[in-house]
Amino acid sequence: MSAGEIDLLPGERVLWAGEPVQRPLYVAADGVIAPAGLVLAAAALWFLLANEPSGPTMTAALVVLVIGLYGAVGRSLVRYLALGRTTYAVTDSRVIARSGLFRQKERASELAGLSEPVLKPGPSRTGTLTFGPGTVTLMGIGEPKRVRDLLTKAIGEAKARQAPPEPGTSAA
């Protein structure tokens, strides 16, 4: 993501911009979701073949089959492809992620509201930075330690800007 692609707020400046250099096909949550989806798909397929249902029962079994297949492989494939079109930016006030397989959506989290970034190392000197539930995640980035340090400093500065002035000092 280049600075020209970001809708900056007045006075906001870009500290870092990048994109995933490693696109994981599977993540930790897939260790539960993929097998569950496979079991669901197998059960729906067995039901369809063994019972030869018709009408609403057939429709329900097909829906369960599709949901199971999506959980087993589709979810991971969609994430992998979407990460190929993902870009990230860190400004002096926000962390921004723009991604989407067909339509680009932008998510942003205010730095002052984030906890310290947690680095999960990945292969080949890549990593994923998370801040907690409901916030932007920077997945598969290069030089993750440098970006984490930059974010830690930027979060501290953003929180300091929002802190009320200490008693006995004047804001001249």
Topology:
Layout: E1 14-18, H1 30-51, H2 56-83, E2 87-91, E3 94-99, E4 105-110, E5 118-121, E6 126-130, E7 138-142, H3 144-162
Antiparallel strand pairs: 1-2, 2-3, 3-4, 5-6, 6-7
Using only CA atoms, what is the Rg? Answer: 22 Å
* Strand content range: 15-25%
Biggest sheet, spatial arrangement of strands: 1-2-3-4
Query: How many DSSP-defined strands?
Result: 7
Give a brief rundown of this model.
The protein is α+β, with helices and mostly antiparallel strands. The chain is 40% helix and 21% strand.
Describe this structure in words.
The protein has helices at residues 30-51, 56-83, 144-162; strands spanning 14-18, 87-91, 94-99, 105-110, 118-121, 126-130, 138-142. Strands 1-2-3-4 form a four-stranded antiparallel beta sheet, covered by helices on one side. Strands 5-6-7 form a three-stranded antiparallel beta sheet, covered by helices on one side. It has 172 residues and is of the alpha+beta class. The two termini are 38 Å apart. The longest helix has 28 residues, at 56-83. The mean pLDDT is 86. It is 40% helix and 21% strand. The protein contains three helices and seven strands. A hairpin with a 4-residue loop joins strand 5 (118-121) and strand 6 (126-130).
